[in-house]
Specification:
about 270 residues; nine-stranded mixed beta sheet; 7 helices; about 20% strand; disordered C terminus
């Protein structure tokens, strides 16, 4: 089994938006992240970020599947699985008129946690950079995209390749002037894995947004002409029929290997999968 560490940021304080310490999970206990841990990491690492409704145990199971898929495709790194307080169940899937104005709905809390978790991840990325470490691959799923985008948007990090699978963020967030327009500038390549057959994004995502917004993980960006040139979209519609199927598809991991080795199509927005 390839190496995999699980690090976790947890709630702190009285507010569900307050996220505190970062710790490493080892044999069911939490161990504080120390400088010696970071110093002892290899120079090149990969980071995995889970999506919504993924408590630590489920996230770790998912990460193990992903790491095995990476290894089978020849993508061998020391992996760090980042978990965050993602919420439970789908209590915010069906909105109502009062929840639109309620700042403490499950959806609002989870979105806030994702953004705050991204700031904690960013602090970790800066520690890695300070120690001379480089993140070769940062791979996310679903709402984990918001965590990664929040971490990257401030820049000054060592990340080579970002892969957002089924990103559950609006399809215009990477465009000029939008919320995460700067995120792609701070990595060598920024890659989107999308599927038109993802029912969670095609149906439930739009319901939670009152039909006003479309998810980035369905067809990619709304307007490719307003994006940085290093953003590429890979359409897995022929292979991925469900929201969490990417981790089960060798075509997905083969594409990541091509991205890592610099052999993926260089033309932006080319749908190749």
């Amino acid at each position: 089994m390839p190496s995999l560490d699980i690090i976790s940021c947890r709630e702190s304080g009285n507010s569900p938006y307050d996220l505190g310490y970062l710790s490493m999970m080892e044999r069911g206990s939490r161990i504080p992240i120390t400088t010696s841990y970071i110093d002892n990491l290899p120079e090149e690492v990969g980071i995995l970020i889970s999506g919504y409704n993924m408590p630590d145990d489920r996230a770790e199971d998912s990460y193990c599947v992903i790491v095995e898929g990476m290894a089978a495709a020849g993508v061998n790194l020391h992996w760090i699985g980042f978990t965050w307080p993602t919420g439970k169940g789908y209590s915010w899937v069906v909105p109502n008129i009062t929840s639109w104005f309620n700042k403490d709905t499950e959806k609002t809390v989870v979105m806030g946690r994702a953004s705050n978790s991204g700031q904690i991840l960013r602090a970790f990325l800066l520690l890695l950079k300070q120690a001379g470490k480089r993140v070769v691959i940062m791979q996310t799923h679903s709402l984990g995209a918001r965590v990664a985008l929040e971490a990257l948007n401030g820049g000054d990090v060592n990340v080579d390749h970002v892969i957002l699978s089924a990103p559950a963020v609006d399809d215009d967030v990477l465009q000029n002037g939008k919320e995460y327009s700067q995120a792609a500038f701070y990595c060598r390549s920024f890659n989107l894995a999308v599927s038109k057959n993802d029912s969670v994004l095609t149906r439930l995502y739009r319901i939670t947004n009152f039909g006003l917004d479309r998810a980035l993980g369905i067809s990619g960006p709304r307007n490719n002409n307003l994006l940085p040139p290093n953003i590429r979209t890979f359409d897995f519609s022929n292979h991925v029929k469900g929201h969490s199927e990417y981790r089960l598809k060798p075509q997905y991991f083969d594409t990541i290997r091509l991205i890592k080795d610099g052999n993926a199509p260089s033309k932006p927005y080319n749908l190749v999968a």
